[in-house]
User: What shape does this take?
Amino acid sequence: MSPPTRGWMPRAHPLWVSLTCADATQNTRHVGMSQMPGTSLPRRVLKPWGWELWYALTERYAGKVLHVERGHRLSLQFHERKDESCYLLSGRLLLVRGPSAEQLGERVLETGAVWRNRPGDVHTIEALEDSDVLEVSTPDLDDVVRLSDNYGRAGTSEP
Assistant: This one.
């Protein structure tokens, strides 16, 4: 596969089409991926803001697609160990991030934007339109410290 060009659209790729279809909620055969014992991938996890599709979970990294519905936002949070890099596959987001909850900046992101949340970075995203984010991180999926949440979830969380 050649590298993306200026006119490249992620949704046109056959793999992306298969990941975003309604069948993603069904058990799918997964071939050729090293994964942690006891995990069945891909795995769709419903969230109050949309859903996550976990496609990789190894002892060294995790990979997810986050689908965030327009007008919804993830909790304002930070991670003690988790280091994550993100790519906006489609949509528009408001990225809110800073060294503390008192020092947050905002930036509107368009399709193709990339960003990194290092351990300790306070952050959230809000979907200005339906958005899909590709996230690759360390495998610390239970490392979430919530500072505020629109859906009543608080504190630390399980994956």
Notes: Residues 38-153 form a domain with the Jelly Rolls fold (CATH 2.60.120.10). The chain has one helix and twelve strands. The radius of gyration is 16 Å.
